[in-house]
Amino acid sequence: MPQVKCSVANCEYWAQGNICSADEIMVEIDAHANANLKEEFAGEYGQNDHKDQATTSSETCCLTFKPKKSAK
Description:
Blueprint: E1 14-15, E2 19-20, E3 27-29, E4 60-62
Antiparallel strand pairs: 1-2, 3-4
InterPro entries: DUF1540
Pfam families: DUF1540 (PF07561)
């Protein structure tokens, strides 16, 4: 798997050096960003069977994001 850079430090999958440590990455177009999808893991979304097109990177978003659990 290629190394994925990510600067969202409050993500459960963020690792030192701005590296994404998720086993799978789910990227979607912004038009689907507010879809009612599970938040737990990209592979569980069941969204592997459709294809969309984007013109620029700003039209896309990462759905793998999961907020870090706060350490108490």
